[in-house]
Amino acid sequence: MIKQDVQKFFQLISNKNFKEAEEALEQIKNKLEKSPENFGYLKALEGLILTFKSDDEKLYLKKLMETKDEKELNRLKNEFSTHVKNELHGEYDKGYFKALLEYLNFLKKG
């Protein structure tokens, strides 16, 4: 069920429904068990809300996440996937990049 909640969250931030996205994030927080990986995952989701709420067009993450360039999206997916699988990264980092990778997959489907 958490996957559906996360997909709903991604849809809400894509539609700039930030209040509802924050409520959806609270539901996700309540469903995830406490672990370093899940903490990183949640921080990435929080970061997505903050990034898209910002009017600052210079934000690196905002530029990356709003790109429509297929090559760039694939490059980012490969990069984030590498971070998720890298044994040298801690669980927090893996969770963080996992959330960003899932968001890119969501964008690619849409």
Oligomeric state of the chains?
single chain
The helical percent reads over 70%
Q: Outline, from the CA principal axes?
A: globular
Number of helices: 6
Largest pleated sheet: none
Order of helical and strand elements: HHHHHH
Round the Cα radius of gyration to an integer and report it.
13 Å
Rounded mean pLDDT is: 89
Regions with little confidence, pLDDT below 50 for 5+ residues: none
- Calculate the terminal CA-CA distance, rounded to whole Å: 20 Å
How much strand content do the residues show? Answer: under 5%
Structural class: mainly alpha
- DSSP strand tally: 0
The overall number of domains is 1
Blueprint of the fold:
Blueprint: H1 2-14, H2 18-31, H3 36-53, H4 60-65, H5 70-85, H6 91-109
Describe this structure in words.
The chain has 110 residues and is mainly α. It has 6 helices and no strands. It has one domain. The model has no long low-confidence stretch (mean pLDDT 89).
Short characterization:
With 110 residues, this protein is an all-alpha fold.
Any key phrases for this structure?
6 helices, single chain
